[in-house]
Write a structure and sequence with these properties.
Blueprint lengths: L4 H12 L23 H4 L16 E6 L17 E6 L10 H14 L22 E6 L6 H13 L6 E6 L3 H9 L3 E5 L5 E2 L24 H4 L7 E5 L3 E3 L5 H4 L1 H6 L7 E3 L8 E4 L3 H10 L1 E2 L7 H7 L3 H9 L3 E4 L4 E3 L10 E3 L13 H16 L2
Parallel strand pairs: 1-12, 3-4, 3-7, 4-5, 6-11, 9-12, 13-14
Antiparallel strand pairs: 1-2, 7-10, 8-14, 9-10
Protein name: LAMI_0G13762g1_1
InterPro entries: Nucleotide-diphossugar_trans
């Protein structure tokens, strides 16, 4: 077979470039596939089927960095396109990645295998147009203590002239708080209570009491994955304790970021994997929703049930790590900071764990941001 010079060169380049090892073999369960016995969805555990696997083997970690243009010194400036870098989990990051070469390899792989994850967004989902209506910011109101911080989050997003709307997920039993947010001009979406459930048809003694799941907020981090299918193409969750200091629309506008989330090799991107994330970028998907719901379901009696006990002591973050730890990427970690304390250079999103940081007597820089935002918010409110 004869190839044109360009195609032959690209094929040779594809052969010479290292490729990502598959995260799931043919015999293992995909995180969005039908749960089988022993799978992560059915038992909550996942063991390698390779008897030779050891600590010497390292999966690839995917990191995506969003940074300012080299000519821009003001953190309020526009963001650069997301740069994709690959690194071994315990090896130093390469100094430079030849992006054009990576793109060429991706194109070749897509030509040779149209079903490859390198094609970006899956083709079996709704055909969305990239617009501000199809992508949005998401936060979650778990109780009354979140009201003030969410108002600050919405205010700072507007102050930074984000072209994307903030929607707040609110449980049905907090309808009064939802109405208050709506009166303030904040968009609200009703959400179900999220907790492990006993399947009644298969469990005769499945009558549950409030003590079975004493704190529904433990699993609220799963809400964006469960409540937004068919509503948005791409969403970015922001913690209700966050404030935005500079425009970060790139998290939603960048096609490099959105195409990376194919819900097969990559399900979510967060600013960190070591602690509760301040932000999560995800693509709502019926397969991911089904996987989470299956994992949260109990088909045998809760009495002396190890999975039931484990779920009761878990959080939404624990569930995401259990199901998607091999399909998890990192993005924007370089401009996220958790306070209180001194604000670092280049930070665009900050989180303050206090319920009312504007009332705190602390004089640290991050707490002062909330104090100024709260004063300005109330000054501008009718």
């Amino acid at each position: 077979m004869d190839f044109s010079d360009d195609l032959a060169s690209a094929v040779r380049k594809s052969w010479s470039e290292p490729s990502d090892p598959p995260l799931f073999s043919e015999s293992s369960n995909s995180p969005i596939g039908t749960p089988q016995e022993g799978s992560a969805c059915s038992s909550g555990t996942h063991e390698s089927s390779n008897p030779d696997s050891s600590e010497e083997y390292h999966l690839w970690k995917h990191h995506y960095a969003i940074s300012d243009d080299a000519k821009t010194t003001n953190p309020q400036g526009e963001l650069m396109n997301v740069l994709q870098e690959l690194e071994f989990s315990e090896q130093p990051r390469p100094q430079q990645v030849r992006r054009s070469s990576i793109e060429d390899v991706s194109k070749i792989r897509q030509w040779l295998n149209p079903r490859s994850s390198f094609s970006g967004a899956p083709t079996n989902e709704l055909n969305w147009q990239n617009s501000a209506q199809n992508r949005c910011w998401i936060s979650i109101l778990s109780d009354e203590r979140d009201m003030g911080p969410i108002r600050v989050l919405d205010f700072t997003l507007r102050a930074c002239h984000s072209r994307y709307t903030l929607y707040v997920l609110v449980p049905h039993d907090l309808e009064d708080l939802a109405k208050e947010l709506a009166k303030l001009g904040i968009h609200v979406i009703a959400m179900e209570k999220i907790a492990p459930r006993l399947v009644p048809k298969l469990v005769p003694d499945s009558t549950s009491s409030p003590s079975d799941a004493p704190f529904f907020g433990n699993w609220n981090l799963l809400a964006p994955f469960l409540c937004l299918r068919d509503s948005f193409e791409l969403v970015c969750y922001l913690s209700p304790r966050c404030a935005v200091l500079a425009n970060v629309d790139e998290l939603l506008a960048s096609e490099t970021v959105s195409d990376e989330i194919d819900n097969e090799t990559c399900v979510l991107l967060t600013n960190t994997t070591d602690e509760p994330p301040m932000m999560i970028v995800l693509r709502p998907n019926d397969g991911i929703e089904a996987c989470i719901r299956e994992y949260m379901s109990i088909y045998i009696s809760k009495d002396s049930n190890e999975k039931w006990s484990r779920l009761q002591n878990s959080t939404g973050l624990d569930v995401l790590k259990e199901l998607f730890k091999d399909s998890w990427g990192v993005v924007a970690g370089e401009y996220c900071q958790r306070g209180p304390g001194t604000l670092s250079s280049g930070i665009k999103i900050v989180e303050n764990p206090n319920n009312e940081p504007w009332s705190s007597q602390s004089s640290d820089e991050i707490t002062s941001i909330w104090r100024r935002a709260w004063l300005e918010l109330n000054r501008s409110s009718p």
